[in-house]
Request: fold
Amino acid sequence: MIGCRVLGHRYRFRAVDRELRWHCERGCGAGGSKSYDTAERAERYAAALDREDRAALGERAPLIGLLPLRLWRSISRKRQASSSPTPRS
Reply:
């Protein structure tokens, strides 16, 4: 699925007895499972992993948050490359 290749999988987690199961919400077929010693532990991991922090997206997004710095560095490198003399053969 192209969405998973470009954006990565969007895993959803759930606990079934002592087993933690996950699958890609986009329907690409990716997923798996892991067994734990107790059902409570599997449920705790499922609850911790199955959440979407969309409210804090701007605070945790280095790509978006650092975009001005990346652009500035890119422009600086291009300026340095164009101002440096090229060696002659």
The mean pLDDT is 82. The two ends are 49 Å apart (CA to CA). The first strand starts at residue 11 and ends at 16.
